[in-house]
Structure formats: C-alpha cells, structure tokens
Amino acid sequence: MSLPNDFHWGFATASYQIEGAVDQDGRGPSIWDTFCKIPGKIADGSSGDVACDSYNKTQEDIALLKELGATAYRFSISWSRIIPLGGRNDSINQKGVDHYVKFVDDLLAAGITPFVTLFHWDVPDELEKRYRSLLSRKEFPLDFKRYAGVMFAALPKVKHWVTLNEPWCSSIQAYSAGIFAPGDDSRQDIYPWIVGHNLLLAHAHAVQLYRSEFKEASQGEIGVVLNGDAVFPWDATDPADVEACERKLEFTIGWFADPIYFGDYPSSMRKQLGDRLPEFTAEERALVQGSNDFYGMNHYTANYVKHRETPAELNDIAGNLDVLFYNKRGDCIGEETQSPWLRPCATGFRDLLGWISRRYQYPKIYVTENGTSIKGEDDLSREEILEDDFRVQYFDQYVKAMAVASSLDGVNVRGYFAWSLMDNFEWAEGYQTRFGTCYVDYKDCQKRYPKKSARLMKVLFESMIKKS
Ligand code: BGC
C-alpha cells in the first residue's frame, strides 16, 4: 500500500469561507454577501464578513501549512476582488491581483505548491443583477473566461489550475434546493440544467484560453473539480437498485464529466429530462470535449440507493431514486456527523475512485477535498475539540482506502487535499459545523490551533509516499 513518490498532499480552503475582509482593498460584493443578508438563509445568521480573516493572515496560514508539513495548498480566488463588478469590460482591481501574486510567491518560497481554484461559488453580485449570472449562456462563460485570463497572466508560476469547484452544487443547491446563493428555486425543473450547461461552457472557455496562451510557457495543467458520493445498492440482489446506483453517479458526476470526456450528457439524463437538458451545439461540444488535464475529485460520503417504481417527478434531480443511510438488511452506511448528508464510509472511496477511473480511461486524479465534521464538535471546549479522534480515524481510513486504490486498482491518483485547513464558514450551516483540521477561535482574533488530525497527515503521507 503506497502512493507515488511525486504525490502532492495538503489542505484545501475557499475564498468566501476563510478570507473575510469583504470591504477591503476594493473587493466588490459576491452573491454570497447578498445571500447571507437574507434572514433565515444561514443557520446561525452569520456571513463570511470576517470568517477566518485569512485575507489579513496569509503569513499565519503559510506558517501553519509549513508546520503541518503540507507540500501543497488548494485555495480559491475571489473573483470580485479581481474584477469588482465581474464583467469582461469592467475594470481590474490591481490591489486584489497583487494580493494573490504575493500569496503565491510566499507559498512557493515556503516550498508549498499552490493549486488554485478560480471559482468556488462566489459570483460577483453585479453579474447576478446584470443578467442573472449563471443563468446566462451567452454572458457568463465569456465573463468567466476574461477573469480566468487575468489570473493566468498574473500568476504564471501556478502550475495547477482548477476552473470550477463542484458545478453540481452551484446548480442543485442554488437552483433546486435553494439553500445556496443566489437561492433561486423558482424553476427547479429547468434552471439547474441550464446552469450546469453554462458552467460547463465557462470551464471549457477558460481551458481553451489557458491552453492556447499560457500552458506552454508555464508548463501547467487545468481541470474541473467535481463532487460525488459513493453508492451501494439498497438491495444488492435487485438489478433495478444496481442500475439506480449507476444512474445516481451519472446524474452527479456524469452530468459534467461525460461531456468533458465523451462530448455529451449521459443517456440516462437525456431519457429522464428530455429537452429540459440543453443540447450542445457543435461548437460547444468541440469546446467542452477533452477539456480536462486532470480530474479533480471532491469526496466525503456514501449512500445506499433504492430505485423508485413511479415515474420521475418533474423536479427530480437525482435520477428517480431514494438516497438512504440504511440498506434492506438494516445495515447503516456510517456514523452520524454534524452534517446531515455526511457519514463516513471509506470503502466507498476506493469504489468511487475505481468507477471514475474505469469510466474515464484512468485520468490523472487529484483528490481536491476529503474530510468530515463531527457531531456536536462545536459544543465542546477548545481542549476537547483539539482531540478530534473521530476525524483522525476518518482520515486514516480514507487515505488508506485511496492508497489501496492506487496500489491495487490502477487508479492514477496524484494528490490529496484534506478539507479543510481550518474551521471556516460552512455555507448555509454557518460556523456551527466545523470541518477544520485546525481549530479557529472565532472569539479570540480567529487564532488557529492544530487539532490532532492536522498533525496526523504528515505521518500518514510520509509513511505511504514512496521515497524514490
Ligand atoms: C465544498 C466546501 C464545503 C465542504 C463541506 C464541499 O462540497 O466544496 O466548500 O465546505 O463540501 O460541506
């Protein structure tokens, strides 16, 4: 059980979840600033206004990464710091650009490889007002392309670019569930599929630009990050449940990865959604197909999947099936955490790495997020929180499952990022749910304290990465 000798490992974060400093140095508002102001949208009524104050604590964060031994760091850029109004004819905020240029230089000087995500859900708010942002097939992809180009030019030393984080979440959580910004669930039957399509186009435009103007000089790579939970049939002897498992993966992963690797949406989606699922024009298809240098995999949990007997409802987004924690025999998939959707099940990780590899011809994979919350963690004292044995066990089992997939299943996994470097703004859950491997004391200047799990990582990876 081992990992390749050039394996990258570290921690991941996202701009709106950690930066704070929302009015500093000319940053414009994003849709999350606006969304957090709507009463009832965020569990504790909080926002990313201060968060971990990482915008002002870059040196502390880099020192922390160094102390923990990370060889890489995945973070995201706040688009509205770079172009406060967001659009392709809007002006650039040089202070915002300079901030990230210095951050990347400082990371590199500390021997830490930056993995940079361009978009982790924080659309400039002006684009929402101007043309409803992600709903625009014409404007959004081109505005994103321009923003991406500004960053490619500003950060030539970055060799690992992520276009989008989890387009599934941007589409489903925002336009079906309505729990993420901008929270528009007025057309659950149509909007998620339009948004997904537009995000694919935005990704592909940025990749095309990178490849034509920047890739050769920087010798870098670019890809999208997709989320996906592992699946097990509710009744393993029922072919309809086995098929439903496949369909669930197609509706979450295949929705984006099939167009990127094969040039079109999965047929199961077309069958259920008909013409509510956009068609690729020939030009769009040519742009999207082949637009990944690597596969970015975010992974947290697993479910049992049970097919439904009745026709799919109009608002169904999952493939006409039930997603469950218990199977027919009454076995539970994993222990409860603070996140209602998350239960640890490391065998699912190995399974899903295999599924992705087989389906997409063994792409290079970076595990761009993996981690867990802990039930009731926020109710404990700091001393208790630092002894996060539940998280220690989670990482131990998941990282080993990944190493098995790498050693035995031919999975080409080349990097791993624990979510997250530190406790942060957990979107609609606010600050009550902690995903950090480091504790953040929000009552005392956002001071960071490594939990046991943060220190485990180095031990774990050093024991598993081949020396030569
Ligand atoms: C997201 C993170 C989030 C994490 C835990 C991922 O889907 O990319 O931003 O904090 O899950 O919910």
TrEMBL record:
It catalyses: Hydrolysis of terminal, non-reducing beta-D-glucosyl residues with release of beta-D-glucose. The keyword Acyltransferase does not apply. GO terms for biological process: cellulose catabolic process. GO terms for molecular function: cellobiose glucosidase activity. SUPFAM superfamilies: (Trans)glycosidases. InterPro entries: GH, GH_1_N_CS, Glyco_hydro_1. Its EC number is 3.2.1.21. It comes from the Eukaryota. It is an enzyme of class 3 (hydrolase). The keyword Hydrolase applies. Coiled coil: none annotated. Keywords: Glycosidase, Hydrolase. PANTHER family: GLYCOSYL HYDROLASE, LP05116P. Plays an important role in cellulose degradation. Shows hydrolytic activity against several glycosidic compounds. Belongs to the glycosyl hydrolase 1 family. This is beta-glucosidase.
